[in-house]
Amino acid sequence: MMRTGLPTRCWMLAALFFTAILSFSPAPVMAQVPPIPQATTDPLPSWNEGVAKRAILDFVRATTDPSATGFVPQPDRVATFDQDGTLWVEHPVYTQVLYAFSRLHLLAEGKPELKQVEPFKTVLSGDRDAIAKLSLHDLEKVLAVTLTGMTVDAFQAEVAHWLETARDARWKRRYTELTYQPMQEVLAFLRTSGFRTYIATGGGQDFVRVYAENVYGISPEQVVGTAGATSYGYDAAGKPILTKEPKLLLNDNLAGKPEGIHFMIGRRPHAAFGNSTGDRQMLEYTKAGDGPRLAMLLLHDDAAREYAYGPAQGLPNTEVGTFTPQLYDEARTQRWTVISMKVDWKRVFAFELTP
Amino acid sequence: MMRTGLPTRCWMLAALFFTAILSFSPAPVMAQVPPIPQATTDPLPSWNEGVAKRAILDFVRATTDPSATGFVPQPDRVATFDQDGTLWVEHPVYTQVLYAFSRLHLLAEGKPELKQVEPFKTVLSGDRDAIAKLSLHDLEKVLAVTLTGMTVDAFQAEVAHWLETARDARWKRRYTELTYQPMQEVLAFLRTSGFRTYIATGGGQDFVRVYAENVYGISPEQVVGTAGATSYGYDAAGKPILTKEPKLLLNDNLAGKPEGIHFMIGRRPHAAFGNSTGDRQMLEYTKAGDGPRLAMLLLHDDAAREYAYGPAQGLPNTEVGTFTPQLYDEARTQRWTVISMKVDWKRVFAFELTP
């Protein structure tokens, strides 16, 4: 497994861990009063007080207090997080698609015939309007050509290199820096509370695995994502290799999310976090379990600090992160908790702390 | 997740854990000598001294000693174990096949027309010779009918119930009691040494998950196995359910083992344990990694305490657990370590301790 080498992020994550651990030191023992561990500092400092923050704190208390009726034994404590738009920025284009486009340019240097064939010709033209009009089927062709046909080791090395060198257009930072600080706090808080935190992404499983450990502290086996087949074989020297094949094994989106969660985890989550219609079934499935269950939906309503899209702004939905009015309605009827980025978050990114 | 409720086995596992933890208490601090943690008791008490036991102890020392060149950071410590024939008895019939046959009898009570259709007619006849002649394709039909078409929750409950009530023909014990005590010690030893222990089985992922946590301390997400698709839907009351479908997602056998390991774990194991040709690629793939790697192959050569089959005995191979002479040769040339059940194990089953 290649490492993406993001020491800053690593230290931040370590600091988060220690903050969270410290915040759960037992309170001083009072005479005649049994010692009850209490949070002496806030485990969610980037969250404003409100319904969303309260829902997280209440859920953790209800599931981890051994005397509570909703107590969940530690082996059963599983939380799943959508990635694009829930843990980091997905707008205006998924990071993985940007990677695929960049990779296509590299590929075309060695295979100039790609420049004559659609949809590659359009992507290579750099014409943003034409690219925006490509169909999902066209994008799949680009993904198949750029993300398969190499060994898993070569793929990991290439993605790691790209993540180190590429910068996003708006913040001029690495994509791996565009994670939401409040969600990092939720990940750390759940883990110090005995939960195992999983990513359940419609994005590529192998792509997300390259950075998930450094960026989120989530190991490769805890990334459930859309996955292609690999094929086992031998290189010229007879060494065993695994090659990425253009054959879909798991489409981890929509109904595929609970199906993928069952396949990879084998337990129903007690908490799930999403932001789009692709997460609907995961949230439903999570909430349908017995006892306390937390289902949260992130609303992107902060154009100043990030982006605003979806029903709260009356903006047209983009292809990515489709947050329909119907989804908003279901959140209300199913008692999912909607997180307003604008209202609930004190800060969006960690780098706001150190401008 | 249903529990199989095996308190005896649970206590044994807990005892194993504590034994292993105790065996790693630091040695008393000597004047002027830095305190080096040392095993004061044997972490593998059911193993005779010899090449196999030495290989395990050397591997753990080489990978966990921070000053050793082969040191493996804890996140990378992954060990995979085949299940049937490596962690428990597979001879003369896989437990899962026995379950499927038993389930077919139950199904036929409600659907008597199954009694008229092959291969179900043969299985239901109870004619052992005829059953033994069924093809793999026939067995797959039986598995498809008996292991799919119900919700994952119903399947788990049915398997758990069967495991509680069924008894094997030779030892008159639950199948879950037929695990190898020396391998339980290896699992516990690796875990106390910071390894995550996975099952990589050609058997059904959902089937093995029902008992793996109680029997081996291996949680559902650490079971990689042959897996069928599920489909997300809603029951009559509108509650989300996952239904098991007769569609293969992952054939976790032969080349499918390293492919399944990449899919589910995303890292190359540092140690792998198998006993048949179905494990060959997993052992090759493990051994091909850098640094110290442990690949072990269990030879069933103990007819008195368990069974003898495979090359050592010159016996004809059965359909299950095919240990060919070619595999034995590859073990030698690739420097895998062969475990002789007869020579290397002081005892085979835990119940030998308490007859």
Question: Please, could you describe this protein's structure?
Answer:
2 copies of one chain form a homodimer. Chain A has 355 residues and is of the alpha/beta class. Chain A is built from 13 helices and 7 strands. A 7-stranded mixed sheet of chain A has the order 4-3-2-1-5-6-7, with helices on both faces. The two termini of chain A are 32 Å apart. The model of chain A is unreliable at 1-36 (pLDDT under 50). Chains A and B meet through helix 9, strand 3, strand 4, helix 10 and helix 11 of A and helix 9, strand 3, strand 4, helix 10 and helix 11 of B.
Query: What kind of sheet is the major sheet of chain A?
Result: 7 strands, mixed
Cα radius of gyration of chain A in angstroms: 21 Å
Number of strand elements of chain A: 7
Distance between the ends of chain A: 32 Å
- Quaternary structure of the protein: homodimer
Pair with the most extensive interface? A-B, 37 and 37 residues
Average pLDDT number of chain A? 86
Structural class of chain A: alpha/beta
List the keywords.
homodimer; 355 residues; alpha/beta; 7-stranded mixed beta sheet; 13 helices; 39% helix
